[in-house]
Amino acid sequence: MSRAAAPVDGRLAQRPASARGRAGRVLLGWLPAVLVAGGALVVFFPLFWMAVTSLKAAPEIQRVPLQVLPDRWLNLDNYREVFQRQPFGRFLLNSALVASISALSSLVFSALAGYGFAKFRFPGRDVFFFAIIGILMVPFQSVVVPLYLWMNRLGLLDSYPGILAPDLVSVFGVFLMRQAIEVVPSDYIDAARIDGSSELGIFWRVVVPMVKPALATLLIVKFMWTWNELFWPLVIVNSPSMKVVTLGLISFTNMYFIEYHLVTAAAVLSVLPILALFLVCQKWVVRAVVMSGLKG
Amino acid sequence: MRQWARLLWPRTYMDRQRRAGLLFVFPALVYFSLVFLVPLVESVLGSFYRTVPGGVSQFVGLRLYTKVLTDGTFWQSVRNTVTLLLMSVPATVLLALAAALGLHRLARLRWRNAWAAMYFLPFSVSLVAAALIWQWIYDPVYGFLNHLLSLIGIPPQKWLQSFDQVLPSIAVVNVWVRLGFDTMIFLAALQAIPAEYYEAAGIDGASRSQALRHVTLPLLNPQILMVCILELIFNFKIFDQVYATTQGGPAGASQTVIMLLYDTAFKYFRLGDASVMAIFVFVSLLLVTLLQWRFFRKTVEY
Question: Which residues of chain A make contact with B3, given a CB cutoff of 8 A?
């Protein structure tokens, strides 16, 4: 089969050929690899550039023959200054708290709803399910004004419940959990039912253990999404102590003068936890992306 | 009606089962109604009311619609959004397709997973952080990009601060952010294509480029379409990148629809006008999604 033997290094070129022809083929065999790797480096460069800039002192980044690497690796002065200028630790904590609660809450309610949609028949089931999927068509920005007015009336502006309000259950989560639970064999559920287990008991002891990978996926992805969110926090947060990390990042910018040594250090601080989570859990994230893609 | 009554007062085992199912989905249903459906209705209603300072709303019929939809600033923001979209979407999809095909074909490439991860990484970065990193690269005086240009003798450009270059510059950020997402989808789809198809193509004497054209791309068609639509929706809602860098400037050159909506609602507190824009965004994306469904019905079967 030709695909498995893809001539990465041109070795498949078996026909005897002139030296020049063979060299050409070797080059052609290498070309895609060079392009793919080169593209990867280009895509990676901005992250690298952020990281090295965060280690440079202000005068260093303004040196005129531009210098790529920092004078002193492990120069953490910028990071120290980020925490001195703004309560950045508080921002990180706020984000961690908000993202964790929103991920956990989505997990619980999406799993419950997913189980209901996957394994029960009740009047209106399909209508309800498609109504929920239909919400994917409603851009959040279309409902933001009424939501803001509600939060204002409820006195929840500038509070954790206010930041969390629109993020407690995710449509994608319901969809993902329904897909995952649908393939759990109903025999197990029926067997537990015959043994006299309650419906919630079946959910907890039979269904949940069998869909752990999907639960992990949802947890990670929802955490990432909430951590990276800007629009709603921007609307609802006023005081510095309630800012999440995306807002904290923006507070380091200014239309006229930007201290990039600080901005990049703050950006590293905001990106690093998610980047690490992503690298460790890449398998699950890819799964979620593919699922969210398939949902359209 | 009777089946609903039997849900409330279940008589048989099946009734109790139905009620259990409904109870499982109930919290999510209530939540989504509160957070999406009711506010959406309120948005529609709000677009007919003008809020007078002091908090009194006054019914004005369609007057806000005529006001917003005849406003040059609004259409400028729509034009900017569409321009951005036309610059970002094709580039993202084509580059992602190339990257995925490359990564897939080079199954034996050394460190293949590391190369793939590099493409995926920007996807995990927040749009704010992405925008700020790029703003630094675009810096007219000390930025890396102008440094590169100076090496080949091109004078420094103003990028985000230039009236003509600001939209393409933001488009590059969009492509960078979304490339990984699309590459992941394409790569997964490519890996799902059974090897037999290529064997058959090989037996029929197809060259590699013929196999690409007649086997891979047709099989990838649903994913390509889907990614295009997702990108369309994503780019239509562009806000974070613009807010973090240019705030719509210079002189409105990068003002997008959502950016204008945000300013109208939360900077000038013209909530009625903002609601009209919200309805506009909703209807536009609804049309895109409906088009997508029509497309999908036709193209998914092969």
Answer: 123
Cβ–Cβ under 8 Å, residues B254 and B246: yes
Condensed to tens digits (0 to 9), the pLDDT of residues B209-221 reads 888 888 888 888 8
Best B81, B104, B112, B128 member to test A by mutation, with max A CBs in 10 Å, is: B128
Residue A171: name the closest of A240, A218, A123 by CA.
A218
Distance CA A292, CA B258 (A): 23
- Residue B49 sits at φ, ψ, to 5 deg, of -120, 140
User: Is-contact B211 A6, C-beta < 8 A?
Assistant: no
Contacts of A109 in chain B (CB under 8 A): 27-28, 31
- Give the 3-state secondary structure of residue B49: strand
**Residue B204 CB partners (closer than 8 Å, separation 6+):** none
Distance to chain A for B15, nearest Cα, Å: 9
The count of residues in chain B is 302
B279 to chain A: which residues are within 8 Å by CB? Answer: 142
CB within 8 A of A145, min separation 6: which ones? B39, B43, B46, B265, B271, B274, B275, B278
What are the respective helix, strand and coil percentages of chain B, to the nearest 5? 75, 5, 20
In angstroms, rounded to a whole number, what is the distance separating the alpha carbons of residues B131 and B134?
A: 5
Q: What is the pLDDT of residues A242-286, one digit of tens each?
A: 999 999 999 888 656 788 889 999 999 999 999 999 888 888 888
* Cβ of residue A165 closer than 8 Å to a chain B Cβ: yes
With a cut of 70, say whether residue A294 has pLDDT above it: no
Q: Above 0.85 for ipTM, yes or no?
A: yes
